[in-house]
Design goal:
Helices cover 38% and strands 23% of the residues. The protein is an alpha/beta fold and 271 residues long. It folds into 2 domains: 3-129, HUPs (Rossmann fold, 3-Layer(aba) Sandwich), CATH 3.40.50; 140-270, Rossmann fold (3-Layer(aba) Sandwich).
Amino acid sequence: MEEIIVGIDFSKGSECAIELAIDMANKMRKNIKLVYVVSPSGEEMSIEKTESKINDLITKYADKLIGGNFKYEVVKGKVSEKLSLIAKEEKASYVVVGTHGTSGYEKDWIGRNAYKTIEETECPVLTIRENFNFNKDLENIVVPIDSSMETRQKMPYVVKIAKLFNSTVRILGLYTSESIITVVDKYIEQVEKYLTNFDIPYTVEKTACENITTATLEYADSIKADMVVIMTEQEKSFSNLVIGSYAQQMIHHSMIPVLTIRPEEINSASR
């Protein structure tokens, strides 16, 4: 059985990650593996104490995980490298990690390695901010569409999650210049057809913007979205590059879970 990997550091953020992983595992009938990475520097807990704390977490959440089991692994090294390696070895469906936003970016070991984990992990990575409100169903999934060729590759993952949670997909067309309007509109039409083929309910909104992260998050907030699905590679513009990569900005600033997908190589002829 494929697993969902959850990186933990015993912070509140990593407990939020466990809760979100449980929601997904119950829908997908998967196991959850908790991974604690011992920092190569700084104070370290004994293996006995670490395993005791992990078992306390498993006991706390065991009744919520239906149809699957908890496992755990304690390893030493760099967080991103170890999570990526374990995810590959386990053929994991997802890696889930907690993060803390700009105000607490350096607070905990997992949180400050979230973006590196995304960069190095082949499977999708789901990041969740501490204090996320779980008292709401996953009703609305925001799917930003820009002019990059990779932007459509997230759709199979979007469909899978939308079907599992009976979600509505909120397509957001992003126009950073007039020259790309035709391309973005073409991609949106393709996405609409794809969603229609799978009977996924959706809406379409389009907006002109300078920074696609700001535009995406403002829209997500306006509709009270529950998740944003993005690619690690998105449209590159001066405004976005000055502040940082799109995925990095999203992780730092999003108050809702962000699912990040690594793109596959595309032949330019397929555009």
